[in-house]
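Q: Structure tokens for this one, please.
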Amino acid sequence: ANAQAMVQAGGATLCAQSELSADALREVLMGAMNDPRQLAQQAENARSTAQPKAAALLGDVAEAIAAAQN
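A: Here is the predicted structure, written as tokens:
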């Protein structure tokens, strides 16, 4: 789900595991390296979807759930 959200935002390229190979990975990486403007746009799109404090928020939720069970 997280990967799909990043793809939909234009911040990532998704490769199905069943199709993943060294050749497929090389094609994705070469495409990115050969188009720096597109790569920069993809990076910006990825940053726009970021949740910088996601790990801390998840920890807070886990602590709250644990506290409620005690």
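A few notes: Helices lie at 2-8, 22-34, 36-48, 54-69. DSSP finds four helices and no strands in the chain.
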